[in-house]
Amino acid sequence: MFHSLSGRFLILTIIFVMLAEVLIFVPSVARFREDYLLLRLERAQIASLALLADEMISPDLEEELLRNAEVFNVVLRRDEVRQLVLASPMPQVVDRTYDLRDPPALELIGDALSQLLDQAPQVIRVIGNPTRQAGLLIEVTMETGPLRTAMLEYGVRILILSAVISIFTATLLFLAVQRLLVMPIAGVARAMSHYAEAPEDGRRIIQPTSGITELRQAEDALQSLQTQLTGALKQKERLAQLGGAVAKISHDLRNMLTSAQLFVDRIEMSEDPAVKRLAPKLVNSITRAVHLCESTLAFGKAEEPAPRLRDVLLLDIVSDVLDSERLAVGDADVSLSEDVPGTLTVRADPEQLFRVIFNLVRNARQAIAQTGQPGEISVSARAEGSAWVIRVSDTGPGLPAKAREHLFQPFQGGARKGGSGLGLVIAQDLIRSHGGRLELESTGPEGTTFLITLPREGN
What is the mean pLDDT of residues 60-77? Predict the structure, then answer.
């Protein structure tokens, strides 16, 4: 119970109510003490008036009047004359004097606390105003024992009453919190557990029903989160199915390309100059296609294979990419250029780096071709500090807003109609595996530039 929200709330409620009662208790006891002393003054005044009415009162009756008033003597001041009206032997000298004629509240509280804490018997003098203007002043002397006993009894009654009020109030608040807060929270927790058992089941998504604003906001947020998660899980399942299909297609395509590779080997023996010039590029293209199929099969089993790093001339890779794209340009007015130092050597997996640059150049060519306007694509590279920097720039129309927002998200960042949106995701993963970064440096009506950064550590 003490570890539950409702149990802790119950305990805190009792503590706070008792604290409030304690704050009320002190002035209440001070008020009780003041009323007690005023009552003694009033009784003493009545006794003194009885004596003034009949001056021949007997000593026994005088003693009885003082005993009923619970005082030792009474002094009454009338017409500026101070007169000892009633008197009896004093057990000891007067210890303190208290003036009840319009005393400050803090003084009354301080005197009451002092009275409670001081257990020694004392005789005190109390001064006050007579009731109904029956004189100018009245004072009495009395013992503090009966006063302290009465104050303690009153205090115990107040504390018992406070405890009863605290328990009753805390119980009501406990039941209210249990009904209005704890039970709805427990319902949300049960809904979360129920959803966690089968998150793919859309019927288990929570339906907000709470009338409490804050709890309703939590239910709305949870509903949104569960809806997105269910959609993501369904998409993940579809991607898994798609991955299985791609793996099967890649397997068959690899077999076909292997056969094509055998035919290319025969073509290489031709004496035709054009065939001799194009055959190596055809061999490289088919070899890369075979490697891509093998990588896809490996990805279907686990993930993209780790790059096999070695020192390669970047110009050779860029030239192969541009030569391949020149064959694909066709009738489009797209020019391809490179600005790569012939001696620039980078440490990378040549096949994976080829795929990255090829993907960026191909996307740029397709974007320019869709506009029907002439354009230019350039690939430049430099060694800058501790990194190699490769830029792929084009003068195309720039990326649309939606493509920029989901640029590196699978199936969402495609800028070309009909595109899968996987190219940039794969390219980014390949560069990350090299310890580098693939970023969109700029895009707009003047064109788009992608930035590839490869680390040079250890070189």
Answer: 78
Rounded distance, CA 197 to CA 204, Å? 9
Cα atoms in the Cβ-side hemisphere of radius 13 Å centred on 340: 28
User: Residue 420 pLDDT > 50, yes or no?
Assistant: no
Report the C-alpha gap between 235 and 241 in whole angstroms: 10
Sequence spans of domains, the chain: 5-170, 308-455
308-455 CATH, one of 3.40.50.300, 1.20.210.10, 3.40.50.2020, 3.30.565.10: 3.30.565.10
Please provide the DSSP assignment of 274-316 as one string.
HHHHHHHHHHHHHHHHHHHHHHHHHHHHSSSPPP--EEEEHHH
pLDDT in tens, 100-131: 888 888 888 888 888 888 888 888 889 888 87
Residue 183 burial (C-beta neighbours within 10 Å; 0-12, 13-18, 19+): exposed
Least confident interval from 66-80, 191-205, 254-268, 371-385 = 254-268
